[in-house]
Amino acid sequence: MDDATELISDIAVRARAAQRKLAQLSSRAKAEGLRRAADTLRGASDKIMAANQKDMESGEKSGLSAAMLDRLMLDEGRISAIADAVENVANLDDPVGQVIDETKPPNGLTMRRIRVPVGVLGIIYESRPNVTADATALAVRSGNAVILRGGSEAVHSNRAIHAALVEGLSQAGLPAEAVQLVPTQDRAAVGAMLRAQGLIDMLIPRGGKFLVERVQKDARVPVLAHLDGICHSYVHTDAKREMAEEIVYNAKMRRTGICGAMETLLIDQDYPAPGPLIRKLLDAGCEVRADDGVLELDSRCVSAETVDWDTEYLGPVVSARLVSGLEDAMSHIAQHSSGHTEAIIAEDVEVAARFLAEVDSAIVMHNTSTQFADGGEFGLGAEIGIATGRLHARGPVALEGLTTYKWVVEGTGQVRP
Length: 417
Fold this sequence. Notes:
By secondary structure, the chain is α/β, with parallel strands linked by helices. The protein has two domains: 3-226 and 389-410, Aldehyde Dehydrogenase, Chain A, domain 1, CATH 3.40.605.10; 231-372, Aldehyde Dehydrogenase, Chain A, domain 2 (3-Layer(aba) Sandwich), CATH 3.40.309. It is 42% helix and 19% strand. It is built from 14 helices and 16 strands. It has helices at 3-24, 27-43, 45-62, 66-72, 76-90, 130-141, 155-171, 187-194, 209-218, 241-253, 274-283, 292-295, 326-336, 349-358, and strands at residues 99-103, 110-117, 120-125, 145-149, 179-181, 202-206, 231-235, 262-268, 287-290, 302-303, 317-323, 341-345, 363-366, 385-387, 395-397, 403-410. The strands form four sheets. Strands 10-9-11-8-7-12-13 form a seven-stranded parallel beta sheet, sandwiched between helices. Strands 5-4-3-6 form a four-stranded parallel beta sheet, with helices on both faces. Strand 9, helix 12 and strand 10 (302-303) form a beta-alpha-beta unit. Helix 6 packs parallel to helix 7 and helix 10 (241-253) packs parallel to helix 11 (274-283). The longest helix has 22 residues, at 3-24. The termini are far apart. The relative contact order is 0.14. The model has no long low-confidence stretch (mean pLDDT 94).
């Protein structure tokens, strides 16, 4: 057994023992632990910002992109928001023990499906130090232990946040080893997590395409993940002009580095005012990679290449093309979407209904910005990620997505004939 495998095995064994203790605690006890953790996060704000400054300086020296630096940066406002998110999760209904359904067959048995924790979660993530807190809050509230392996670019931030969280949880009597941060940045530790079948019950990667692809390719543990966030907005011919311009601008430019940012703009060829849509993006410093129809709208556009329709830019770049109608728009989305989030801007309710029904992505939207693709906006308190697969969980993954179920069968002496 190599050192990394031994390390992850030891962490996972301790996590399993802690999870068994956590699973026995009341909903109130778990909630109180998270409230204490939120308080200690707020109290450690200066320490966390000092640690984050080290990561920011290192990131700038190593040439991290502006989008990555934006994800990495913490200030008082962001730390306060992280603590608020932890507290919000504490205030959510506990899914554990919820009865999903109940049946009584003619033989008189009572059969219930009841939500239970998954067990030990492994979270592998890059750049986003808020994931340390979000993953902790969601795992603890749903009765799971969690093993956190953050990226090297956020190592100091993650350690400071983790220390504050564990302090608060311990003060409330929750097992500290229910939340463990892998103490090394050696990539061998990631490989050991991927091979930890029987020790880790589910892996959740959050990061760039190459990280997620590696996890999905090499893992021997079940994986809950999404790859790219290639999100589309389609402006239908009867979209209200002012609404369309505001939504398109927000969907791309509010925060360009998040997975819910619009990456491709589809404009109906019969929409009467396509030029202002493009100009507003260009004027804000967004590069527009366009098909021939959009190129004619503004000379500042550049010609799109084939690869652009399948690219998650995570920056101030968007691909744009004219489409011949709803069918053409949905065909483009079906061919190029990553299954994350798609939006239609339209007044025709029948057209919108078709789009919502026929576009097969985890999230579909009408007359709003794709930037709402976020667990907090969905009322989930926080999210561990957006799942784009079709098994177990889909869309924003929060408390319910971190549970499974078991059948509980009660009888009065029945035997099977």
